[in-house]
Amino acid sequence: MSDSFTSPNSKGGHPRPPFPFPFFRVIRCLQGYFALMNLSKFGEKFTQKAGITQLMDDLGSAMAGGDMLMLGGGNPAHIPEVQQLFRERMEAILAEPHGFEAMIGNYDGSRGNEAFIEALAELLRNEFGWNITPKNIALTNGAQSGLFYLFNLFAGDMPDGSKKKILFPLTPEYIGYADAGLSEDFFTARRPSIELIGDRLFKYHVNFQELEVGDDIGAICVSRPTNPTGNVLSDEEILHLNAIAEEKGIPFIIDGAYGTPFPNIIYTDAQPIWSSNTVLTMSLSKFGLPNLRTGIVIAREEIASAIGDINGVMNLAPGGLGAKLAMEMVRNGEIMRISREIIQPFYQRKAFQTLELFEQELANVPCKIHKPEGALFLWLWFKDLPITATELYERLKERNTLIVPGSYFFPGLEHEEWPHKHECIRVTYAQDDAVVAEGVKVICEEVRRLYR
Ligand SMILES: Cc1ncc(COP(=O)(O)O)c(C=O)c1O
């Protein structure tokens, strides 16, 4: 539509005013507005509503609303003893001469706070005998951004023209991976095998029989403990996956956001495992500092160095407040004790208490629950659920109860039809006991009604 649009006037040929004038004006204004948002492929990819962004938005608005039963998000609990320890650390830093000024006024290097990195390398050497120096460690603004860097270091468009993918050998997996690739078709995944345990529990295992790793795989990744299921892959599974990765000459990424050595939210006997072929990512978030955005990458020197390079471009340096606050605890090993004696028992008690509530409330419902082995979640599988888990989520939201529908947690399996994807939900037990109990009651009422 041209700007000089007119139509001949039958009387005397004078131009008529543009018609319908205000309508086209509005359209042109809108066109002008959207022209400003003429997005690149990158822009389009990262502004389409990713699952993780939707979830964070939902959580944010539910938090703002105030009366939601928040069994949806991944926010860790405010554990009073841990918060008190951080408060004391902060007060000690503030009392040091120039402590406050140095904390807020200096950039760290691109790999993060050097003193923290040195202390952590020593802790890992002493505790686990890992062959680690500070050159094997880089900090990031949260593990989330570290994983984003790692995925895009090893997969996507390769210099020789080939394409590589990140493989999740077992899904369900963490929702936050799903959109973290710079190109399309970035992830691939495998279904697990399912072990039924007694009447009520089940457990996912890596299905090694179906696990072929082709030349199009750039790295293998698992979260351990797994968000959303609370699964902890066994030492054998981890060693087997590492052996496969090593044979293919690709890294094996273990996302230890809930794992050892901290915050150690693990209820089984899993050993911490690292080798020069493993990339271990950790985080201070579930240790109690999610808002300080501190992620840790432990890897071969050249990988840690690459993370520092990307940090430099993306952030100059990662924020250092988390490292500063946790430094003493890493230096004196207290971080391990706090994890073992406060954080782990805190969540373990809540996990089994919530499990018991579900068992009582769902006596006659064909629901199975993933064996709680760690993290902050219970994963419920409603076999032959009459509606999808997403519809269940909507119904529960109407009743002021927030969970996360399971279908989000299958990155790399998006195009695969599998009813299981729509039969599961994730329930967080990190909130206050009363909130969790109330939420469980609502979920069970709704589910019982559905099966009736
Ligand atoms: C499995 C997993 N990995 C990584 C992250 C990201 O953690 P961070 O807060 O350090 O970015 C999360 C956050 O919930 C997670 O659940």
Any overview of this molecule?
With 452 residues, the chain is of the alpha/beta class. It folds into 3 domains: 38 residues, no CATH class; 148 residues, Aspartate Aminotransferase, domain 1 (Alpha-Beta Complex); 258 residues, Type I PLP-dependent aspartate aminotransferase-like (Major domain) (Aspartate Aminotransferase, domain 2), CATH 3.40.640.10. Helices cover 41% and strands 15% of the residues. The chain has 13 helices and 16 strands. The strands form 3 sheets. Strands 2, 3, 4, 5, 8, 9, 10 and 11 form an 8-stranded mixed β-sheet that branches. It has a 6-stranded mixed β-sheet with strand order 6-7-12-13-16-15, covered by helices on one side. The N terminus is likely disordered. Bound molecules: pyridoxal-5'-phosphate (PLP). Pyridoxal-5'-phosphate (PLP) binds next to helix 7.
Helix share of residues? 40-55%
What value does the Rg take, in angstroms? Answer: 25 Å
Mean pLDDT: 91
Q: What is the CATH first-level class name of the largest domain?
A: Alpha Beta
CATH topology value of the largest domain: Aspartate Aminotransferase, domain 2
Along the chain, the helix and strand elements come as HHHEHHHEHEEEEEEHEEEHHHEEHEEEH
Largest sheet: 8 strands, mixed
